[in-house]
């Protein structure tokens, strides 16, 4: 179908609908010569005969012509929807955005997203709601959120995703710990430590399976659904923790100093993804949020390397 114009497609479909060149010309408000030339060009482009033209009996489609016209009808119907698609997209960008986000991810990226839109897109109203994976799937399906942000591997089924940033696995230790001054630490160096690890998915299974591969799963004494709880346990010196994050955690909820030491060769990855309904291509909203999260991740990683 390379080289065909929408106008040529319209002429051929009009011929099929009216049964004559003259009828198609009247319908399309062009001359019969223009319609005839268009059909000739289509047949030449496809290297096949699509019509049988007889003066007294009008135009009859060949079998190939019927198949082509059926396909062209679909194309023309879809092109008619383009103005509505553009209008809908513009409305989404200009008016409001509703973001669904996993609770432990929100503190790392929502301030940056809200700041970026407030500074550069002040006409856009941005709202967010913290959701589980099941809630994300439901709300994306219903259209009550425009996009969702979560961890790769925890993204809802039947959604499309854009990768938005890689998180770092840290050992979280008290400031007084012997490893607090290290620039990185191997997991095997933590064999004598007790761990409090995330209880939320997928971080729990990812981290627990890593410890299990190193025969260290017996060192897990607590799990917690809140990173604040994990930080407080570390701040009190009750356990170390393993946490994925974009940047270093420096204090517990009670103000106790803690230190984030990157795990060397962690063997596992955890990235952030932007989720959206699979029936649409990523648009302005998805790509803007992807860029913001990528910039936030890059900024934290740059600070970590200093």
UniProtKB/TrEMBL annotation:
Gene Ontology terms, MF aspect: DNA binding; DNA-binding transcription factor activity
Organism from which the protein derives: Rothia aerolata
Name of this chain's protein: LysR family transcriptional regulator
Sequence ranges assigned to domain HTH lysR-type in this UniProt record: 4-62
UniProt keyword Transcription, yes or no: yes
Cited InterPro entries: LysR_HTH_N (IPR000847), LysR_subst-bd (IPR005119), WH-like_DNA-bd_sf (IPR036388), WH_DNA-bd_sf (IPR036390)
GO CC annotations, alphabetized: protein-DNA complex
Gene3D superfamilies assigned to the protein according to its UniProt record, in alphabetical order: Periplasmic binding protein-like II (3.40.190.10), Winged helix-like DNA-binding domain superfamily/Winged helix DNA-binding domain (1.10.10.10)
Domain of life: Bacteria
Family: Belongs to the LysR transcriptional regulatory family.
């Amino acid at each position: 179908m390379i080289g065909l114009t929408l106008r040529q497609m319209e002429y051929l479909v009009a011929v099929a609908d009216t049964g004559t060149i003259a009828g198609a010309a009247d319908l399309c408000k062009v001359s019969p010569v223009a319609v005839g030339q268009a059909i000739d060009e289509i047949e030449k482009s496809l290297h096949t005969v699509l019509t049988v033209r007889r003066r007294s009996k009008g135009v009859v489609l060949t079998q190939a012509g019927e198949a082509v016209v059926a396909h062209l009808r679909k194309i023309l119907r879809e092109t008619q929807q383009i103005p509505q698609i553009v209008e809908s997209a513009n409305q989404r960008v200009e008016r409001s955005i509703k973001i669904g986000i996993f609770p432990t991810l929100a503190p790392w990226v929502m301030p940056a997203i809200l700041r970026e839109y407030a500074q550069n897109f002040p006409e856009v109203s941005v709202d967010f709601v913290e959701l589980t994976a099941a809630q994300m799937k439901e709300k994306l399906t219903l259209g009550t959120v425009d996009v969702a942000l979560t961890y790769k591997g925890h993204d809802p089924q039947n959604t499309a995703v854009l990768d938005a940033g890689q998180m770092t696995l840290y050992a979280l230790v008290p400031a007084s710990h012997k490893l607090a001054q290290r620039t990185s630490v191997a997991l095997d160096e933590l064999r004598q430590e007790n761990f409090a690890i995330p209880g939320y998915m997928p971080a729990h299974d990812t981290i627990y399976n890593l410890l299990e591969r190193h025969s260290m799963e017996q060192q897990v004494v607590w799990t917690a659904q809140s990173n604040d709880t994990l930080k407080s346990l570390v701040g009190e010196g009750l356990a170390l923790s393993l946490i994925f994050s974009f940047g270093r955690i420096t204090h517990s909820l009670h103000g106790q100093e803690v230190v984030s030491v990157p795990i060397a060769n962690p063997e596992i990855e955890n990235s952030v993804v932007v989720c959206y309904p699979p029936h649409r291509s990523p648009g302005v909203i998805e790509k803007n949020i992807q860029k913001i999260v990528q910039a936030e991740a890059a900024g934290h990683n740059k600070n970590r390397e200093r």
